């Protein structure tokens, strides 16, 4: 091609120069071939992948999809014919979600051209700054944000930081296949490359640089968020499949206040769901919720990218909601169903009221800018109930929430999913006040 142009206002090569070098690499790889005395198929696949990315960045919009797709298909052909352990770290690139993610040229350009060190908190471990590593890391953050959006509801936690998002133009509003996203995240984050046991293997000629370490933090967060989504959908059997993996908590999470608080809140919720028949359920729930609130008090938002800031806000809200739901569930387990709750008292009742009041105050503070939110109103009613408020006034508020929810179901009013009242709290409030529904 003979093109080696440079930008006029920069000492760095232009995208055309990068495309030229990528195509030269393709020509040399084709000349060497992939036979026993040629290049390993894993190397061939990476060369074609680099050419595909360069075509996406350098060519016009009409030509980029065609040529980028051509080199991507060539790469996939080599991946299918290569030994599995030598190309397992590349399989994520051919997933439909990944193809959609890299199809955004502006986002891809921002990810690859950014000179700043990307900060992702405790959600994703830092990797080497190769092009594929940058794409892999930002994709993991994007997929985690999809799970947080599905769990918390709505994308308003990301809109305030949309300027700092890595050109996330789709605004995280497409539907989420929880199983698909979770499996993709786990496959990206776990150890992908096998141990090279055969010295005559073609990839062994290039040493062990093809292998990489897994991302324990991202794997842990993936299982936590997936478990929470299953809980919300009353799919407790599917949620239990993630317990053993969540227990294997990485050391980085134990040192992070947000991760530690989410872990304690999850333990409290798990006790209420699976161990509610235990005689010490109240004691354990109070212990875990107290530790969760202590860690949440120590948490402070760090300097991160826009998407990560949204993930932090969403997981913090999730932790507070798990704490409040667990306290309400454990408090209710100490009541007798045959008597009105306002006539009963038991040992440790004040502890439930104090912990719930603190959780609600913090939750209301971080959600203060979201306007009229029926979810927040239900938590307020529960807090008043646990602190001995007039049951008639509480029941009046519950009836208002039920009426508004039914109007939303009938289409009379619109209600964002994130603003909808918490189903567990509303059901519990109705059941405790059913004696007043005369």
TrEMBL record:
<dbReference type="GO" id="GO:0040011">
    <property type="term" value="P:locomotion"/>
</dbReference>
<dbReference type="GO" id="GO:0000981">
    <property type="term" value="F:DNA-binding transcription factor activity, RNA polymerase II-specific"/>
</dbReference>
<dbReference type="GO" id="GO:0040014">
    <property type="term" value="P:regulation of multicellular organism growth"/>
</dbReference>
<dbReference type="GO" id="GO:0010628">
    <property type="term" value="P:positive regulation of gene expression"/>
</dbReference>
<keyword id="KW-0238">DNA-binding</keyword>
<dbReference type="GO" id="GO:0008340">
    <property type="term" value="P:determination of adult lifespan"/>
</dbReference>
<keyword id="KW-0805">Transcription regulation</keyword>
<dbReference type="GO" id="GO:0045944">
    <property type="term" value="P:positive regulation of transcription by RNA polymerase II"/>
</dbReference>
<dbReference type="GO" id="GO:0000978">
    <property type="term" value="F:RNA polymerase II cis-regulatory region sequence-specific DNA binding"/>
</dbReference>
<dbReference type="GO" id="GO:0034059">
    <property type="term" value="P:response to anoxia"/>
</dbReference>
<keyword id="KW-0804">Transcription</keyword>
<protein>
    <submittedName>
        <fullName>Uncharacterized protein</fullName>
    </submittedName>
</protein>
<dbReference type="GO" id="GO:0071294">
    <property type="term" value="P:cellular response to zinc ion"/>
</dbReference>
<dbReference type="GO" id="GO:0010884">
    <property type="term" value="P:positive regulation of lipid storage"/>
</dbReference>
<dbReference type="GO" id="GO:0005634">
    <property type="term" value="C:nucleus"/>
</dbReference>
<keyword id="KW-0539">Nucleus</keyword>
<dbReference type="GO" id="GO:0001676">
    <property type="term" value="P:long-chain fatty acid metabolic process"/>
</dbReference>
<dbReference type="GO" id="GO:1902321">
    <property type="term" value="P:methyl-branched fatty acid biosynthetic process"/>
</dbReference>
């Amino acid at each position: 091609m003979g093109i080696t142009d440079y930008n006029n206002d920069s000492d760095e090569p232009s995208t055309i120069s990068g495309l030229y070098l990528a195509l030269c690499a393709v020509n040399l790889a084709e000349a060497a071939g992939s036979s026993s005395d040629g290049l390993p198929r894993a190397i061939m696949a990476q060369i074609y992948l680099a050419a595909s990315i360069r075509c996406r960045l350098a060519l016009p919009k009409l030509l980029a999809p065609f040529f980028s797709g051509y080199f991507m298909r060539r790469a996939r052909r080599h991946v299918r014919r290569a030994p599995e352990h030598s190309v397992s770290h590349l399989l994520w690139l051919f997933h439909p979600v990944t193809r959609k993610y890299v199809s955004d040229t502006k986002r891809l350009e921002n990810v690859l051209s950014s000179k700043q060190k990307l900060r992702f908190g405790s959600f994703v471990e830092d990797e080497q700054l190769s092009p594929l590593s940058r794409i892999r890391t930002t994709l993991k953050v994007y997929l985690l944000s999809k799970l947080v959006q599905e769990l918390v509801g709505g994308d308003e936690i990301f809109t305030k930081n949309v300027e700092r998002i890595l050109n996330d133009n789709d605004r995280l509003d497409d539907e989420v296949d929880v199983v698909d996203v979770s499996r993709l995240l786990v496959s990206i984050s776990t150890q992908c490359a096998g141990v090279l046991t055969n010295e005559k293997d073609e990839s062994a000629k290039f040493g062990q640089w093809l292998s990489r370490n897994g991302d324990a933090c991202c794997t842990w967060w993936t299982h936590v968020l997936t478990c929470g989504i299953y809980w919300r959908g009353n799919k407790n059997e599917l949620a239990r499949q993630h317990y053993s993996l969540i227990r294997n908590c990485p050391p980085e999470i134990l040192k992070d206040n947000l991760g530690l608080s989410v872990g304690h809140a999850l333990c409290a919720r798990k006790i209420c769901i699976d161990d509610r028949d235990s005689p010490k359920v109240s004691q354990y729930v109070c212990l875990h919720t107290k530790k969760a609130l202590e860690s949440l008090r120590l948490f402070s938002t760090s300097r991160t990218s826009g998407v990560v800031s949204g993930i932090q806000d969403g997981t913090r809200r999730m932790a507070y909601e798990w704490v409040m739901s667990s306290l309400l569930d454990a408090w209710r387990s100490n009541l007798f169903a045959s008597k009105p709750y306002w006539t009963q008292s038991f040992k440790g009742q004040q502890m439930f009221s104090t912990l719930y009041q603190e959780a609600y105050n913090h939750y209301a503070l971080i959600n203060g800018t979201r306007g009229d939110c029926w979810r927040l109103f239900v938590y307020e009613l529960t807090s008043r109930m646990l602190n001995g408020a007039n049951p008639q006034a509480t029941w009046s508020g519950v009836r208002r929430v039920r009426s508004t929810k039914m109007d939303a179901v009938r289409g009379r009013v619109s209600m964002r999913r994130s603003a909808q009242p918490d189903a567990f709290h509303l059901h519990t409030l109705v059941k405790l006040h059913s004696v007043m529904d005369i």
